[in-house]
Design goal:
single chain; 200 residues; 0% strand
């Protein structure tokens, strides 16, 4: 079997870091755990990245870019309501199929808030720039700032409700459009199994 190049190893580290940081957060995740998941030594890990913060920055950047790409691909050639529906379905499918993407987002926001409070703005600058790219990617096909705000707000509500564990079929999903309602419930449904009727 051919040895992996440094670029391939970096890619492996980023993927592993998303999984580890998603589960343990920035402060609760060791570089040892990331190195172990990749199958490399810690000294080799630090040849690829200068430190834990750099690994987290790379993982956060990847999380944002992956989400932006999902929106862009879903809305390709669509406008208005068709674009909204396609992007909503694609996003919920993303976090249902790869729960670490949702968990990484939530860890990223907590870490940014803590870093900003401590006077460290590097991560915040990266996340804000990534969020603006997300915003613009959504805003172009929707064509309206109010629709963009509503879409992004709904996405954050989906994140929050999914993270809290509201299952498929719960009345909390009733206010979402039908296409998102069914898919959003499935974020929990895939983890919890089919819901036995509507939960109150």
């Amino acid at each position: 079997m051919a040895r992996m190049s440094a670029d391939e190893r970096r890619e492996s580290v980023i993927r592993a870091a998303i999984q580890e940081f998603a589960r343990g957060g920035y402060h609760g995740t060791s570089t040892e755990a990331i190195a172990k998941r990749v199958g490399v030594s810690q000294p080799y890990l630090f040849r690829l990245f200068p430190g834990k913060k750099a690994i987290f920055l790379a993982a956060a950047g990847r999380c944002l870019e992956s989400t932006r790409r999902v929106f862009a691909e879903a809305a390709d050639g669509l406008h208005g309501e068709e674009a909204r529906a396609a992007m909503g379905e694609a996003y919920v499918r993303l976090i249902a199929e790869d729960p670490a993407m949702l968990q990484m987002q939530l860890q990223m926001y907590v870490t940014v808030a803590a870093a900003e409070a401590a006077g460290d703005h590097e991560l915040g600058e990266l996340v804000r720039a990534g969020w603006l790219e997300l915003w613009d990617t959504v805003g172009i096909p929707l064509g309206d700032v109010h629709q963009t705000t509503a879409f992004m707000a709904q996405g954050m509500l989906i994140n929050t409700l999914s993270a809290m564990g509201f299952p498929s079929g719960h009345r909390i999903w009733d206010g979402f459009p039908g296409d998102v309602d069914k898919a959003a419930g499935s974020v929990r449904g895939r983890a919890d199994g089919p819901a036995g009727g509507r939960t109150v």
